[in-house]
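Task: encode each sequence below as structure tokens.

Item 1
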Amino acid sequence: MAVVAMKELLEAGVHFGHQVKRWNPKMKRYIFGERNGIYIIDLQKTMKGVEDAYNFIKEVSASGQHVLFVGTKKQAQDSIKEEAERAGAFYVNQRWLGGMLTNFSTIKKSIDKLKNIERMKEDGTYEALTKKEVAKLEKMRMKLEKNLGGIKEMHSLPGAVFIVDPKKEHIAVLEARKLNIPIVAIVDTNCDPDLIDYVIPGNDDAIRAIKLLTSKMADAVLEGKDILSKELEEQAEKAAIEEKIASEEAGDRPTESTLEEKEEVVE
């Protein structure tokens, strides 16, 4: 069964590209035709792209690595946050701060600052401060939460990134490529597909299209986690059985004291 149906893609408007004058010639192989000055994306290619991307994201998730969802354009913000949270993944949906991947150690310091302010708010430290000091801390907390809230618990670099509109998120693309982190992306007719490892040709401007394709990637993360969970359960059961067998064998094996007792009886 296909990961996404042709009907779903059509209803969400995934096939609508950009105006013909705003295209990237490298996207030619993903274009079906042109209608009223708009390029129409070949949805057969989209279905294949979704399937390949889904299987890859599933593998990454099943290996225990996490996936970072990225989409800061207005049309993508809600879908990125909702679907990433549903999948228990990390996300950036407000602003990509330069160095989020390539200078992750510095970003982690900002995350630590955010967590420290949150602790101060929860443990009553705020009560000992002046209103002005609290207002200053709250302003800083909200700014940090807005930009870093989606990666607050991300302690290491992701195994893959999923991006909506790689042209807009070009800094994220460059950072991921520099670190050899695989990129999955919704690639519209104005983008460069050569920069992307797993291309999902599709409309990156329509909210419904973004929601549909992002939800499929979230499903892949969840399926991968389910596979990993079952593998870990099987390993734990196997280890428990092996431990039980070893324990039983050790119980049947005569100890030095019992051997000495037998020798004394024989004498």
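Item 2
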Amino acid sequence: MNRLKRLLKKSAAPQRGFTLLEMVVVLAIIALLMLIVIPNLNDQRKTASQRSDAALKQVVHNQAEMYANDTGNPINDVTLEKLRDGAYLNSNQYSRASTKQIKPVDSHAASK
């Protein structure tokens, strides 16, 4: 019987866990890290978007020059539709340039 009591006493021993204070401290540290990381991610997203727009303007400009050279037309006559129809811009580039209202002539003037 004593043996059974000792066995039950060992298995029913209280186990140590985290206190409420320890949990609050951990959550506060995580919240602090989130406050540091999230604004940085927003800045990175904005920078990436600006670089992507600048790269698209450069692509439209380069493709407009190629189209003008290939067809013998002046660059002022080049449109996004002509670049798309001539396969100088793919559908994704065309739709992004249309949405951003990038024009071949504007991007040409801006890069010089």
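Check on item 2: The mean pLDDT is 86. The longest helix spans residues 20-71.
End of task.
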